[in-house]
Amino acid sequence: MKSQNKSYALPIIMMILLFGMISFVTNLAAPMGVVVRSQFHASNFLGMLGNFANFLAYAFMGIPAGKLLERVGYKKTALLAILVGFVGVGIQFLSGVAESFGIYLLGAFVAGFSMCMLNIVVNPMLNSLGRGGKKGNQLIQIGATFNSMAGTMVPILVGALVGTVTAKTAIKDVNPVMFTAMGVFALVGIVLSFVKIPEPHIKDRAVEKVLDEIKHSAWSFRHFVLGAIAIFVYVGVEVGIPGTMNLFLADTSAKGGGLDATTAGFVAGTYWFLMIIGRFVGASIGHKVSSKTMLTAVSSVGIILVFLAIFSSTENTVSIPVFQSLQGKIGFGLANVPINAMYLVLVGLCTSVMWGGIFNLAVEGLGKYTAAASGIFMTMVVGGGILPLIQNAIADFNYMASYWVPLIGLAYLLFYALIGSKNVNTDISVE
Fold it and tell me: For the chain, which residues make up each domain, given as ranges?
């Protein structure tokens, strides 16, 4: 058993690195909303179109990527995803050169294809290497911790590069972030090409039980269907809370807003930093605490925090420790922000462990349908584009009222944890 664990150490490390890449590129879209809003004189709704385009790709690529994984395996799927991601970020860089909002949206859309494919790989891979259950949950939480570390860096880097938003603020100002993303893709792609990865989900068509697959699928399981909806909701909640908060804090016309883009980005980055903390805790206790218990607890606390944010006055301020640029160095410092922002930042502790919990609950007992289920899951990640878009359409009229969208989403996640996650289709063969 020791030798087996040792042989899987490198694949696990590679999957964790890919988890970080997913977050780095995905989380670039939200702080970019501040940039494109300035350069193209866009509304909050239009500013989040890049985020929408990124997640829209999941709707097109989720199921095909799951099929691709079944046919060619983890390694080839991941390498193709890395290539597509490099091209997607490259297009976004070119949008700054061409000063074209349309090209930027195209780049975000192409990058979304890559993120979808990588998600298809890393989640079932880590769950499989952990042999499911609590150990699988622990590995996904560890990967998600690295994911949050990468996500924390993005709004901080964008905010530091932009500084104070002016009429001259443009996409080209954040080129160093684009170059970093492309460099990470290139490096991990080279390393991954030399790594041997187990391929448990490649199907042998010669022995596949075709008739059984026609009769049943992942959709035959109620807890999976409700779990797929939960993923749609969760990603929308996770992205919408800090994304809208970033726009709110940087909006000079909003009560409680008017912070410079650097500080607003650092506050949003602190949300992702708290997700790191939460995922460290989740990873450390994941082998002891069930996914159902975790999801129930964090959904309940998240509902309370968002409720407080909605009904608190934006004129009441509080100093909170956030990442800041102090004398040219990145460190912690105090930022005076509306108390609403403090509550929303704290939600990062709650959303931190939700992905792994929902994934494990939804695929529990699926057996041979797990790979296809992962593809469906990735299709539902499109919620990360749709719900924030709806939220920011409301935010154009009232920022805090827009947080009813994630509040309702958190209520659904609580329902799923308590009731919807139970497998009531145990009579279906999964071998």
Answer: 2-195+217-420
Q: Are 389 and 236 in contact (CB under 8 A)?
A: no
User: Which pLDDT score, from 0 to 100, does residue 3 have?
Assistant: 42
| Residues above pLDDT 70, as percent of the chain | 81
- Contact yes or no for 135/12 (Cβ under 8 A): no
Helix (H, G, I), strand (E, B) or coil at 284: helix
This prediction's pTM: 0.73
Query: Is residue 278 classed exposed, middle or buried when 0-12, 13-18 and 19+ CB atoms within 10 A define those classes?
Result: buried
Q: Which two tokens stand for residue 322?
A: 């956030």
Task: Please name the residue that has the structure tokens 């995905």.
Answer: 26
DSSP string across 334-352: EEEEEHHHHHHHHHHHHHT
Residue 101: CB atoms within 10 Å: 17
- Cα dist from 55 to 33, 125, 236, 366, whole Å: 14, 22, 10, 26
Task: Name the DSSP letter for residue 364.
Answer: T
- State the pLDDT at residue 171: 72
For 35: left if phi > 0, alpha if psi spans -120 to 50, otherwise beta; the answer is: alpha
CATH no., domain 2-195+217-420: 1.20.1250.20
Q: What is the mean pLDDT of each run of 10 residues along the chain (431 residues)?
A: 53 78 76 70 73 83 81 84 91 82 86 86 72 64 75 70 61 78 84 74 50 66 93 93 88 77 81 84 79 93 97 90 62 83 94 88 82 79 88 91 96 96 78 69
Angle at CA of residue 324, ends 156 and 50, nearest 5°? 20
Average pLDDT score over the chain: 80
Burial class of residue 316, CB neighbours in 10 A (0-12, 13-18, 19+): exposed
